[in-house]
Amino acid sequence: MKKFLRGILTKVRRSDWKQQYAEIKTIVTEEQLIGFQKKYLERLLLHAERNVPYYHGIFDRIGLIKNGRVDLSRFGRIPMLTKEIMRQHGEELTSRDYTTRKWYYNSGGGSTGEPVRFIQDYIYKKWGEAAFYYWYKDIVGIDEPEVKKVILWGSERDLFQGGSGWKGKIYNWLKNTVYLNSFKMTEQDIDRYIKTINSYKPDLIRGYAGSLYELCRYAERRDMEVYTPQLVVSSAEMLTGEMRAEIEKVLGAKVYDYYGSRETNNIAGECREGLMHILAFRNYIEILDNNNQPVKEGEEGRAVVTNLHNYSMPFIRYDIGDMAVLGPNECKCGSPLPTLRKITGRITDHFVGEDGALFSGPVLTGTLNLKDWVKEFQIIQEDYKRVRFLIVGNENVNESEKREVEDKIKFLLGQDCQIVWDFVGEIPKTPQGKYLYIKSLVRR
């Protein structure tokens, strides 16, 4: 009975985005991808010029559209869209004809914790679901709707909106999905989650990078075996090399990193060769340096995203607040999609030197990873010359290792840097359930 009902549910869900997925599958060369992006980018810009007050004046000033034709050579002159602009001009950024579509509100948190509300629609959603399925099916090689899944997730909205009550339970049962709430994970919770994984035996485990890492560290400390799935997908937080190694060691499966956001949804996903493929039929991505110029392969820059399919509230050249390293256009896996070498984290996940230099998360978290006296930690840059460590650990602090950590921080920020250690019982997560290892309060 379950197989029969799930088959009906799968057909209904896939029928929603079948057309979008079929169009994506026609893209097999770089030239076809460029043509696809050009077509949808021009359509979006023409729509925004005619229907979105905020963009109408901007496009007119920079001469982007003349006689109904888009001059894409001027695209880089469009000012960046930021969360602050969205807060100030939300009404002007909304398309005049948004009520002609099936639309809904969504929101995303910022570095300040203050959410930003925006509008999305069901055409946007269909393209998102098609892109999500494409990554699993055509890049990773797994039919995601069909397999047994355990989702270790932290957002209360995602977990409980339609996920509680008998309707939610039946829906998740039909989807072969077990949700585990990582919003707050006590040792008792983690112990219960491991037992759930071992009894359910999922093909796929997906979750926040930090939550997966903490579960695996707990299992290793307790010498507990955890069932090995076909693969593990890490998302929503930066996955460091140390975290990846720990998760793969404990779970015995390859970890694939996936990059998305509330505002623009699916952005990039890792392939078996270890590169992050930009889902370029979903979003147009620019990786820019401090002078807003495109970086070269191997260089780090800010990710700027233009979603190609949300006509109700277009996100055009949106400075998403993330840093990434640009990868090659070609990959050994054979995908025609361009790549990123890695996501290096939020801009606020980087410490800032007085000279403007940025120090990325992995450099900083590496100072405390795998220390026996540290269970959890958060490193906060309160000022250019003041850093606070929040530590959840035991009393057996290794003073020699502690001095090594201080020396590394002072090497980066200067010998006059003041370092404060706070040993606490708990490190709070963000309202979205994310665990911030690095937080800088310094604005560039």
Q: Could you explain the architecture of this structure?
A:
With 444 residues, the chain is α/β, with parallel strands linked by helices. The longest helix has 24 residues, at 2-25. A hairpin with a 2-residue loop joins strand 1 (65-66) and strand 2 (69-70). It is 35% helix and 26% strand. Mean pLDDT is 87; it is low at 158-163. The radius of gyration is 23 Å and the shape is globular. It has twelve helices and 21 strands. It has two domains: 1-147 and 230-347, ANL, N-terminal domain (Rossmann fold); 351-440, GMP Synthetase, Chain A, domain 3, CATH 3.30.300.
Could you tell me the radius of gyration in angstroms? 23 Å
- Whole-number count of domains: 2
Q: Note poorly predicted spans.
A: 158-163
Beta strand %? 25-35%
Q: What is the tally of beta strands?
A: 21
What is the fourth-level CATH superfamily of the largest domain?
Answer: ANL, N-terminal domain
Could you give the order of strands across the largest sheet?
6-5-7-8-9-10-11-15-14-13-12
What is the share of helical residues? Answer: 25-40%
- The SS-based structural class is alpha/beta
The CATH architecture of the largest domain is 3-Layer(aba) Sandwich
Distance between the termini: 58 Å
What's the helix count? 12
According to CATH, the fold-level topology of the largest domain is Rossmann fold
Shape: globular
Largest sheet: 11 strands, mixed
Can you identify the CATH class of the largest domain?
Alpha Beta
Task: Compute the average pLDDT.
Answer: 87
